[in-house]
Amino acid sequence: MSGELAFVSCTVNGVAREFHVRAEDMLIDVLRDRLALTGAKLSCDLGACGACTVLMDDKPVSSCSTFAWQAGGSEIRTVEGLAGADGTLDPVQQAFVDNSAFQCGYCTPGMIMLARALLDHDPSPDRDAIRAWMGANICRCTGYEMIIEAVENAAAASQEAGK
Ligand code: FES
Ligand code: FES
User: Fold this and answer.
1) Cβ(140) to ligand 2 under 6 A?
2) CATH architecture of 91-161
3) How sure is the predictor about 80, in pLDDT bands with cuts at 50, 70 and 90?
4) Could you tell me the fold of the domain covering 5-81?
5) Ligand 1, CB within 6 Å, residue ranges
């Protein structure tokens, strides 16, 4: 099947997209190389670290381990699609800034998307739930404490903003 083309139609950050992919093309490559959405980062390329996390139909997925054809018919959200049209940051993004919840920043887009998925699913998670959920992604810099605090603050802000 290698090299065969499949036609994929999906929505990325609210915009209808159509493209041809080979069977072996991964979602992260389409996002980064064809759509210039470089927020999702390639790190382990094994589905283990979460740096490449995007939302597919509101569920976090590792885009390095998701075939592009699997995105057919779905709604994809990347970190580029979180801010409002006027540039206002999503409460999760703002909380990461306010809490200095990053150092090198390489894991940050994936962490933010993972946190967004949590708060979409559970608007008021307790600290243990946040720890358990965010443990799916790896950060090599921060020690996680500031990330956990950012998600706690984002939960409060998201509820205020009705997000
Ligand atoms: S780069 Fe995809 S999970 Fe690590
Ligand atoms: S901020 Fe550097 S890997 Fe998380």
Assistant:
1) yes
2) Orthogonal Bundle (1.10)
3) very high
4) Ubiquitin-like (UB roll) (3.10.20)
5) 42-52, 62, 64
